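This part of the workshop introduces the protein records we will be handling. Getting from the letters to the tokens is the skill we practise here. An example says more than a description, so a record of this kind follows:
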Amino acid sequence: MHSPEVYDVLIVGSGMMGAAVARCLRDESPDIRIAMIAGGPTVGPRAGQHLHDVEDPDVWAQYNRKISSGIQAFYTGVAPSSGVGGSMSDVEPGMYHLTSLGEKADEMPSASVAWNAGGMGIHWTAATPTPWGSELDDSVSPEQWQNDLARASELLRINREPFPLTPAGHAVARSLGERFDPIQAPGREVQNMPMAINDFGNGRNERTSPSVIFAPIGEPESDPAFTFVANSLSTSIIHENGRAIGAVCRDLSTDETFEVHAAHVIVCADAIRTPQLLFASGIRPEALGRYLNEHYFLTGQVIADPERLGFEIDALLPPTELEWASDCLWVPHSDDSQPYQVHIMTKSIVDEARVPTDYAVGIEYYVRTEIQRDNRLEFSDTDVDATGMPQITVHFSYTDTDNANLELARIDQAEAAGRMGDFDPATESAALGAGGSLHYTGTVRMGTADDGTSVCDTDGRVWGYDNLFVAGNGVIPTALVCNSTLIGMTSAVRAAAAVARDLQRA
């Protein structure tokens, strides 16, 4: 990849957002010349394939052992106190805590990022609840939100019933419905969790991943107008006179640098490394890295009482070899009347003969936290991290209101779980450390004016630049209760549409 060609679009990042941008642009025209830089090595035979769907049994088993806890943050490959050591070319692809990469993240110790082609898109749990109410920033019209969410849902192949409820699952849904439905907004009743998971007839439910959204990521030869560059890190955006003209990149295998030139640049490198790259490039809007937000993640588990819920243990089925979860339910938030998102994932517990003996109900509460300007990523002008990029110091704290809301959520969780079985909050509930949800937002937030409170406009166009865009969860300016992928992908839809319009005018 040392071609002097000038591409129409350079996409920095090969995760879900980068894939969505590429797909939207390709749907506009088969001739748009797209280059994509993937910051990390490929896992398995196809770049951007979800690890759940890799046929290699060792890769598949490793992923599913880790993810079966139902808690994404438990999946990271290196302990927070451990450094990766040596060159990044020697680092195994996977999830890593920021502290492992040399960042100063004591105030967000569970914060993690993906180091692989496909980003978080090859690891994520695929939950895609629909954002609602205060999560939808009013700088975008309701009609535009509806259209963008519909397109993002299409790209993600969202399934409204990925896990048809078992008899025990129906019993859990009834119990939760009695508790929550009377206080929910219309249409926000207890329901199946929408997920980007689909059964294509081979017995394995495929997770939507970057290579599903845009197939040429996994098969670059299938699209002659697409160039995919894996295992390379974009170290700076090249820009002059308010225009981006490409990026300087480093081949992680050889440590050689090269440039990729393009008429438009879209950075989709996650909510941590997108602002890091802009800072390294000397692109430093006042709000860059600020307004870092993440909801609380309160996890819990209760062993269901069959008599209390009204189901038979004998009716339970053991987990299959391909899926550990039995049921997946969603209690949407309704803002003030019901402020929590509750995510329920259940599984049958079996004995040595694989006969079900119990039914475990995981009950996770997502609790909104207040947006603070001083919750931020601070970038060093002198020190670098393990990747050679500006070292990050994470500043993150909770307000008194946040802490009070967490305590109210603990009470609510104990009441909801207690309807299903004996539940001891002291031993069966825990709030993950800051960063544990992996749902980070706000660090390149959108706004309607270049007034120091945002990094880009509602199309993702960086203030002061004609052709430089950002997309992804970092663009979201609101405090989320729901998972961030679906609403984050609307920023990729808008950015791609804006670039397509620019290309048509050129």
The chain has one domain: 6-159+194-295+368-398+434-505. The chain has a mean pLDDT of 92. The radius of gyration is 22 Å. The longest helix spans residues 485-505.
